[in-house]
Amino acid sequence: MNTLTLDCKSWPTRQPVLFLVLAAIAWLGIYNVLDPAAEALVAALPVDRASHLGGALQFFFYDTPKVLMLLTGVVFVMGMINSYFTPERTRALLAGRSEGVANVMAATLGIVTPFCSCSAVPLFIGFVQAGVPLGVTFSFLISAPMVNEVALTLLFGLFGWKVALLYLGLGLTVAIVAGWTIGRLKMEAYLEDWVRDMPKMSAGFEAGQVTLADRLDGGFAAVRQIVGKVWPYILAGIAIGAGIHGYVPQDFMASLMGRDAWWSVPLAVLVGVPMYTNAAGIIPIVQALLAKGAALGTVLAFMMSVIALSLPEMIILRKVLKMRLIATFVGVVAAGILAVGFVFNAVL
Q1: Average of pLDDT values for 13-25?
Q2: Do residues 40 and 66 share a domain?
């Protein structure tokens, strides 16, 4: 029995190409039946499909497996790809670059690197030690959680490529401009003394030979670590989104977060900052808000503030930054997010 179990567990890494093909076919097959399965499940319950509860249940039954499947698929693929982007390699790519070019590189690297706000302190210390400029470091720290592969894939799956591409452009712009602005302010003196005085280290890295089977193991590990950590936030976000979808009147949401209320964008940012979630947890709420008539610019500003300006991240960064630098970081990023919200509410 033990030998059989071991063989069953190890065959994907022994035949990685066959496993990837079969897994992709199975994933697509299941994904295509989610909508009728959700409708059938609601129909089997003693609930009127046209009622508020029926609408909320259909939203929950459909979005829960859909978001989890999208998340699992993209995390698995990016877990394989991310073997190219270790912290050492990322530091090496950014160290020694001129500002401006380095800000663009740092923000772009943030899309494909598997680092979240909880990684802020060790990444920040590593970048400072490698000689990466402060503004460039902030461009990466803004982009990595906000414009990551999870956010982009879920946005594409739920709203289409136009919204995903729009979010990509906006997020990169905020990360690049905010990082460049912080770099121009020359605020290195507001690093905590112990961080500023750390000896600089080499930005080199050792590149080993990694096989497809090794990358497959990396994909499995990423799914266990990331999906295993964020699934409660996903369920909470979908539950909130289902409640909004089923019970919140469309006129009320349009008046609160519509394009006609000038204060809707600042309010969305203020509400988003204290929240602690990630792209996977917030996107189902975004989906429900948009369906109820909330303006796209307001909703994007809300989403960006939740992901890029969360209060827990500020508390974590306080270990390495003095309050003035934290306040500057929050102010510059918030200004960029507000500009995004106002501009897109005006033009869309």
Answers
A1: 84
A2: yes
